[in-house]
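Let's practice the habit of predicting before peeking. Look at the sequence and jot down your guess about where helices and strands might fall. Then scroll down.
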Amino acid sequence: MPTDTQNGRRGRRPLARVLAPLLVALALLLIPAPGPGAGTADAASVCQGRPTKTYRFATGELRLYKTRHYACAVTVAKRPGAARPMSVSLQPRGGRPAVKAGRFGRQAGPVTVHALNRCVRAAASVSGRGTSTGWILC
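Done guessing? Here is the structure:
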């Protein structure tokens, strides 16, 4: 019966011990790291659908999204940080408004309403300053 030395197995083990850490290090170098925009609101949205409209105001912005059946709104503070009063409201024509209000650090919402073949109106505020729309997304 051949021994480990005759099979060449003895020479393979140290080679595997050296190559495994090198391959792991190479894989870590090749995997892309998050860029400077990672973790911002632009990286990913909390609403489904395509971005439809953005209304900017002094202390933040109101972002509206639309799918075929639904509309969604989010209020995002211009300068995230300490919790402050924020609100977002979205109302389909002929329906009741969906409201999210409270003290938030970065964003209020999302609020979603069923808006198939309906116009909607939205309102948003951050620290008492805000904006509202007329009937839109008709």
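How did you do? Confidence is low (pLDDT under 50) at residues 33-43.
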